[in-house]
Each structure stands twice: as structure tokens, then as C-alpha cells.
Amino acid sequence: MADRPLLLELTLLFLKLGTIGFGGPQAHLAMMEEEVVQRRQWLTPEEFSEGIALCEMLPGPASTQMGIYIGYRQAGWIGGVVSGVCFIAPAFAIVVALAWAYFRFQTVPSVQDLFLGAAPAVTAIIVAFCLRLSQRVLKEPLHWGLAIGALILTLSGILPVFLILLLAGAVSWLWAQRSQAAWLPLLPAAIGPTDFWGWAQWSERGAPLFRFFLETGTFVFGGGLVIIPLLQQQVVQQWQWLTAQQFVDGVAIGQLSPGPVVLTAAFIGFAVAGLSGAATATVGIFLPSFLFILLAAPILQRLRQNRSIQQFLRGVSPAVLGAIAATLWPLARPSLQSDQPAILLFSLLLFAGNLLALVRWKRPTWQVVLVGIGLGFVVGPLL
């Protein structure tokens, strides 16, 4: 049986990460690395990189799956479930509250100033993470080549990330050998719930809603924003559950809230069948992630002692670094391309200060995020 104090620590840790986890999956991974590798030493750097590689190769949101993986490594199946649920729960509550306000008042709360400082803070967190990771995985010229290749391929969008990691692992293994010698549910159009709980709509729409998001979570690789085009095509164009503007606003709410971006599913579920629909959609889209990780993690632990698997993983780790580094430009671009010099200067200064705080003074990531958001809230109206 899992140790209760350890389960409590997992609960508190992932509730915290789920609450302050602004900035998308790579920021989440950087925060997790700081907590479980640097501070608590639950995993070695190599084990953490292997966990990321496993999560990137499976369908679903990688950061949520990594939380499940960490929980499993510490406290078995129960730990995996606890970590995953606690990571999702805060953002789910925030998305549901914002969805209720949206359909109640037909507007999205204006929070642009509040999040003006979030992008520079998150960018600094990812840069600091890449610097730490590079010191551990770039041990020979081949690793540099794999990292740079993964960076270029990820930025180009030619291949999905999971195929890039598989390719890097295969190259590493071959180099070592050389060295040695649908189903579619039909639902009525739904442009917003008729009541908060949504019991009446759920009795009619709950089963197909669950099945749609279960299939989405099972077969879509990449997670995060990768899943948005699929949702838009089905939810807006085919079934007309949301208008185009409502969908855009729902994606914005999903990005402005902490936690995984795929919690946009909760907004869609709320539109279809209130709170019960939001819960159904969320369970459907995340259930495959729990099953995949809890089934795959034990297999990885058994296989990682195999020589060929070790050679494969040695190539995957540099590719993970390259793929994560590729997210920096899309994240920083809105601030760097701003037509307002004051915003550009504010973003650059905040990024530099955050990076210094992380690398030189070893400040925890949650402090950097909160300071960034606070400064954005104070300075934003003045810019």
C-alpha cells in the first residue's frame, strides 16, 4: 500500500503545479523537473528525460501524462491517479467557472494585462530548464546533432514530435551498432447549456459526448494546441455545438487558465451539457492518458536495463531537449513582434530578470510565475 505521507506530498505538489501551471506543457515539464529532480530528487535526470520521451510517444497531453508517470514512480498506481487528478483539478475548476460566466454574461473577462508578464516568465523557465538538461544529455557530438536536428524538425512541422523522438532513438541505436560493429456521434446543435448542472442535456448527450472525447484522447498525438484544429472541425463545423466565436473564446479560456490546454474540452462539455457535460468531456479526454501511462511505465522500467533500449534512450534524450527548445520561439513571438516598444522592452527586461532569478539565485518557478503575472497586472495598464 502506498505511503500516506507520500500520497499527501504528491497531492499538495500537483495541486500547486496545477494551480500555477501557466504557459503550456513545456512550462509544466520545467516546473516538474525542478520539483522532482532538483528539489526532491525523486527521479534522476536520465529517468526524467526517459519519462518525457515515453509521454511524447503516446497519444494525449504530455505534461499530464508526465505527472501521472511521476506519481506512479513514487507510489504505484494510486500515486499515478492521485498526481494526475490533482494536476487537472484546479484548471478544471477555473475553466468551468469561466465557462459559466461566459455563457451567463456572453463575454470573456478581460485579463490581458494580468497575463502580460506570464509569457516572459514562462519563456525564462523553459530556457533555464533547457540549460540544465543540456548539461546532462549533450555528452558527445552525436547528441548535439540529434538535439539540433530535433529542434529544426520540430520548428518546421514536417514530422510530429513522437516520430522525431523515435527517429532520434533509432539513429542512436544504429550508431551504437556501427560503433560496436470512426465512429461519429450525431448530436443536436448546442449553443450553450440551459442550466448549470445540465442533467437534462446530459441524459441525451452524455454517452456520445464521452465517446467523442475518449476517441480524441486515444488517437490524437501531441496534445496541447495540436488537438485544437480537430476539435474545431468537429465541434463547430460538423455538429455545431458551438459557434466559431464561442470556440475561439473557449480556446482562449483554456490557454489563460493554468494546467493542460486540452481542458478546452471542459468548456465544450459545459456548452453541451453544463457541469455534467464538462466532467464527462474531461474524463473522456484524459482517461486514455491514465491508462497508457499506468500500463506503459512498468514496461519501460523493466526494459530500461536492456542494452539496446539504453542505446535507443540515449538518442531520445537530446531530441527531447531540441523539441522543448523549439517551443521557445512560438511562446516569445507575440511579445517580440509587438508594435509597442514599451511592451517589447518590458518583456525583455522581465525575461532577463526571471532567467537570472532561476539560474543565478535558484528561485523556484512558482515564484517567477507569480511575480511575472503580478508585474503584468500592475504595469500593463500603464503601457
Could you walk me through the main structural features you see in this protein, from its secondary elements to its overall organization?
- The protein is mainly α and 383 residues long.
- It has two domains: 4-180 and 292-382, no CATH class; 199-287.
- The chain is 76% helix and 0% strand.
- The protein has helices at 4-20, 25-39, 45-57, 62-105, 118-137, 141-156, 161-180, 199-219, 228-238, 244-256, 264-303, 307-325, 328-336, 341-359, 365-379.
- Helix 1 (4-20) crosses helix 4.
- The protein is globular.
- The termini are far apart.
- The model is unreliable at 181-186 (pLDDT under 50).
Features:
383 residues; mainly alpha; 15 helices; globular
Shape designation: globular
Helix content: over 70%
What does the main sheet amount to? none
Terminus-to-terminus distance: 55 Å
Spell the H/E element sequence: HHHHHHHHHHHHHHH
Mean pLDDT: 82
Q: What is the gyration radius calculated from CA atoms?
A: 21 Å
Keywords: Cell membrane, Membrane, Transmembrane, Transmembrane helix
InterPro entries: Chr_Tranpt_l_chain, Chromate_transpt
Main location: membrane
Organism: Synechococcus elongatus (strain ATCC 33912 / PCC 7942 / FACHB-805) (Anacystis nidulans R2)
